[in-house]
Description:
Helices cover 52% and strands 21% of the residues. It is of the alpha+beta class. It has two domains: 1-99, no CATH class; 105-196, Alpha-Beta Plaits (2-Layer Sandwich).
Amino acid sequence: MEFDVNKFTEQFDNLELDNLGEWPIAAKVVLTIFAAIVIAGLSYVGLVSDKLTRLDRVKAEEITLKQEFESKYHVAANLELFQQQMAEAENIFANQLRSLPESHETPGLLDDITFVGTTSGLDFVKLNWQPEITKEIYIELPIDIEVIGAYHEFGGFVSKIAGLPRIVTLHDFTIDIAQLSSETLNLKLQAKTYRYQEAGQ
């Protein structure tokens, strides 16, 4: 038995919406399938798609929460070790702060530098404080230094500066032959010490 396409399509001719009950079975089946597809599409758009979007968002949040949990679990599991490391870091920081001169100690630093220079055999031409430079968490205190002496005396001077109990760094070295004699050199440099800047200063 062959399927007659013409006979099948004839069932859809002259269909009226007012008279659905009289439609042929094939037309009713096609209308039912079409209505089912439309209802399924509207249901998906109206009900399911929002929930799928929300599900994706919740899954992403779940991944983030798992990562946060792992991070916090790691911290909690190693809390004693972290506390010990924090105490050690605070001790190191406190020791470094003690190496920085207090505001009342900075004039004494010039005396220390003068003593180190003279015991190294140098003659001072200049030893002057420069204006303070405020940084984010510390204050830089530059000192311009000019001394006269021999090359090896300069080495001893720099070495002794590094051995001072307070932090002093040396910058911008310039060495020239002094006008006194060809064996005497003139050394210009800038020393910097630092002072911790308390919050709110």
